[in-house]
Amino acid sequence: MRATNDPKIGKLYRLGFPGIAARVIEPPAGVERSSEYCYLVESLILRSRWWVNERGEPDNIYSPCLMVHRRRVASGACVEGQVSGGKTNRKAGRRAM
């Protein structure tokens, strides 16, 4: 069986906005789901709900993207979303000034 990157109900995911997360929730009974946008996302901080597809893309342009893709880092741990890495040399930047 192959693992998928589809959103899981009840799990928290990072959003396209920095520092904000949202949870994939079970849709209320009787609500029609779109075939493409079938995951309902809720953010308590943003006070809103919106539908996303399996890639985390929202159904409208005003809602943030959900970071559902995982990538492997050198240590072998899974990291959700996009993480920028690398060290910066602060002393070198100060010398240039």
Question: Can you characterise this structure?
Answer:
This protein is mainly beta and 97 residues long. The chain has one domain (12-84). Helices cover 7% and strands 28% of the residues. It has one helix spanning 90-96; strands spanning 12-15, 21-25, 39-43, 48-52, 66-67, 70-72, 78-80. The strands form two sheets. Strands 4-3-2-1-5 form a five-stranded antiparallel β-sheet, with no helix packed on it. A hairpin with a 5-residue loop joins strand 6 (70-72) and strand 7. The longest helix is centred in the last third of the chain and has 7 residues, at 90-96.
Q: How would the blueprint of this fold be written?
A:
Elements: E1 12-15, E2 21-25, E3 39-43, E4 48-52, E5 66-67, E6 70-72, E7 78-80, H1 90-96
